[in-house]
From TrEMBL:
Its EC number is 2.7.13.3. Signal peptide: none annotated. One of its GO terms (biological process) is regulation of DNA-templated transcription. It comes from Peredibacter starrii. SUPFAM superfamilies: ATPase domain of HSP90 chaperone/DNA topoisomerase II/histidine kinase, Homodimeric domain of signal transducing histidine kinase, PYP-like sensor domain (PAS domain). This is histidine kinase. Residues 312-530 form the Histidine kinase domain. It is found in: Cell membrane. Pfam families: HATPase_c, HisKA, PAS, PAS_4. Keywords: ATP-binding, Cell membrane, Kinase, Membrane, Nucleotide-binding, Phosphoprotein, Transferase, Two-component regulatory system. Residues 254-304 form the PAC domain. Its main location: membrane. Residues 176-229 form the PAS domain.
Length: 540
């Protein structure tokens, strides 16, 4: 008993030693809610919070340990106060969820901390609360480890999802590549893909068949390998220009001669369709190359057959026409010798002359068109007096204009320079334009022919006050076989196409300006510095 009495002779000292030695963090508080003044703490609290006893003991709990003002979502004070009030009300322990409750270090800077707290009362024999104790376990490292693990799990999940997405994309790419490769290889035309330097990057099987090279012999070689020597310079210039404005383009069938060069040295005609291709390496070009040898052969046969037909038809028409013209001349001579010419016969003769003129014009148009189509139309230019050409044509058409009471006005600028042109061809151009003007101008209308000098050319105009041409139809007026749907007057549809062909052969320009209900004005120019002979290279 003596030892027991000696041991408990100083219970306050024993209590403090007991609290100080408890593992974990303990805070002993008075039940003076809402202050909860701190009366004691154990050594772990001072060690963990880096606080000195005089900074804590005797102070209200939330003054000693406030919320972190830099943490906008801090709620440690609120949650701890709520738990302490529950203890005060129930006089029972209350376990809190793990809380974030930042504390200051020795430098006064808040550090992020997480705690696993429990609050419980100390009761006297009467059941009154003497003290409230907060026991807290510092679980910061555990929480951080958990957060890291959760982050790693999320990252692993994201990596897995991303890997699946990449796998799916790769599968789609492989499928698309296989499909593209199948189309690429099954194409009936040669397909050549080249980079901006003109190096061949890919070819299909048809390219190998068409040009005679192996794939290894073509890849990373200049595309000019497939071009004849005489065309390499122009091909290179075109390729460099194309990269400045890379748009889908088709060339080689009519306007421009293109030839491919086989490995064995023989050339063959081709057409090429170009398309830009944007890749990770930059802009590439896809060239679809078609061997048009068979097309050219069939076209040549067709043109030859058409020439034979037109030549035969023209010959068969010319013979009876010559007979008609001769007989009309005899009838005219006979009627003129009569003392009293028969007016009915004069009318018949006039009708025959008109029909013969139309037939002659039709035959000439057929012959001209045949030559233009065959690309063998040649204009023989000689020094000509423009005024004489215009006067000769208008005199022929004056009677036709008078028949419809059309006023025909001719205006030729005086002192025009001598023009180097094909007299017969220019005559046919003016004849076609005047014939159309008279055909479409109503009775009592007017037609104006005007010729004047421009800077480097002579400008011709034939203007009428007929029905005009709509904007939709203007772009087709020089097409072969085209005829307006707005008029009942029909023809062969070749006249204006021939006009354009002849003017092109003279290196001139032809165009039309018109307004529906007002009339049309056809213009063409002939250059003053023209060469002596020109062969039409293309007619389309």
């Amino acid at each position: 008993m003596l030892n027991a009495q000696q041991h408990s002779s100083n219970p306050q000292s024993d209590y403090r030693k007991l609290v100080a030695s408890l593992p974990g963090m303990y805070i002993v508080m008075l039940p003076d809610a809402p202050h909860f003044t701190i009366v004691d703490c154990n050594s772990d609290l001072f060690r963990i919070t880096k606080r000195r006893p005089e900074e804590v003991i005797g102070k209200p709990l939330f003054e000693a340990f406030p919320d972190n003002p830099d943490h906008p979502e801090a709620n440690g004070v609120k949650n701890l106060l709520r738990s302490l009030l529950v203890v005060m009300e129930t006089k029972s322990p209350h376990t809190m969820a793990i809380q974030r409750y930042d504390v200051k270090n020795e430098k006064g800077i808040f550090e992020e901390r997480y705690w696993n707290p429990i609050n419980y009362p100390v009761l006297d024999d009467a059941g009154n609360i003497l003290y409230v104790i907060n026991q807290g376990e510092d679980v910061t490292e555990l929480i951080r480890t958990k957060q890291v693990n959760e982050k790693l799990e999320r990252m692993e999940t994201e990596v897995y999802i991303r890997a699946r997405e990449i796998q799916e994309v790769n599968e789609k790419l492989r499928s698309a590549e296989a499909k593209y490769r199948g189309l690429f290889e099954s194409a009936q035309d040669a397909i050549v893909v080249l980079d901006k330097w003109g190096k061949i990057k890919f070819v299909n099987h048809q390219t190998i068949h068409q040009f005679g090279y192996t794939e290894e012999e073509l890849v990373n070689r200049d595309v000019e390998l497939l071009v004849p020597e005489r065309l390499k310079k122009s091909h290179l210039a075109f390729r460099l220009t194309y990269f400045d404005n890379p748009i889908p383009k088709h060339i080689g069938e009519r306007q421009v001669e293109l030839c491919g060069l086989h490995k064995d040295g023989h050339e063959f005609p081709i057409s090429v369709t170009l398309s830009p291709l944007l890749t990770r390496e930059g802009l590439w070009i896809t060239a679809i190359i078609r061997d048009i040898s068979e097309t050219k052969r069939l076209m040549a046969e067709s043109i030859h057959a058409r020439e034979d037909i037109i030549a035969t038809v023209s010959h068969d028409l010319k013979n009876p026409l010559s007979s008609i013209v001769g007989n009309v001349a005899l009838l005219t001579k006979f009627n003129n010798k009569q003392t009293d010419p028969d007016p009915k016969l004069e009318k018949i003769i006039h009708g025959l002359q008109k029909a013969a003129g139309q037939m002659t014009s039709l035959i000439q148009n057929l012959l001209d068109f045949s030559k233009l189509e065959a690309k063998c139309f040649v204009v023989n230019k000689n020094p000509q007096n423009v005024s004489d050409i215009v006067q000769g044509v208008t005199q022929i058409f004056e009677p036709l204009a008078w028949d419809k009471k059309i006023k025909l006005t001719v205006s030729v600028e005086p002192n025009l320079p001598i023009l180097n042109c094909d007299n017969l061809c220019v005559n046919r151009v003016l004849s076609n334009l005047l014939s159309n003007a008279i055909k479409f101008t109503p009775k009592g209308g007017s037609i104006e022919v005007q010729v004047k000098k421009d800077i480097e050319s002579i400008v011709f105009m034939v203007k009428d006050n007929g029905p005009g041409i709509s904007e939709e139809e203007i772009e087709h007026v020089f097409d072969r076989y085209w005829q307006s749907k707005r008029t009942a007057i029909k023809g062969t549809g070749l006249g204006l196409a021939i006009v354009k062909g002849i003017i092109d052969a003279h290196d001139g320009y032809v165009w039309v300006e018109c307004k529906v209900g007002v009339g049309s004005a056809f213009y063409f120019t002939l250059p003053l510095n023209a060469s002596a002979t020109t062969e039409l290279e293309s007619f389309h």
